[in-house]
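Internal tracking record. Fields below are filled automatically when a chain is submitted to the structure queue. Please do not edit lines marked as system-generated. If the sequence contains nonstandard residues, flag them in the REMARKS field before resubmitting.
Queue: standard
Priority: normal
Entity type: single polypeptide chain
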Amino acid sequence: MRKEEKAQIIESISAQIQETPNFYITDISGLNAGQTTKLRRACFEKNIKLVVAKNTLVTKAIESLGIEEAKLLFPTLEGPTALMFTETPNAPAKLIKKFADDGFPKPELKGAYVQECAFVGADKLGELVSIKSREELIGDIVGLLQSPARNVISALQSAGGKIAGIVKTLSERE
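SYSTEM-GENERATED OUTPUT FOLLOWS
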């Protein structure tokens, strides 16, 4: 590979990391053509960009961005490497878990950089699956904010007849 091609790939990976800062480092070696096609199709459906890259080029791309936390992932850049870029922080983790549940040994998680935190090792998959996306967090907050209001409205509606009766009785006394 020529130096210009390497520089272009480094720039492409750097641009992708800046555009979608959540990325997973996985090992997809050993998948046959059918399994690879199934993985790529699943990635496409979940808006995950799957890129196979050389470890040295990925290292140089991360170094060029100067993200200190992401440098913790350098030890995972050994052997065959595929990168999964995503907007939804837990989507690749759920996809990897689904493939494992379906009996596929790969893709295997090597590490991840999600929400400005580095996760190293396959044992972090459970933590990554449980990370909530921005939309899920907003939904949780809205639900929490609506809960007390719903309780007050429900109490007022159920006691509506009683309150009206009390007010009517009090007004008749005068």
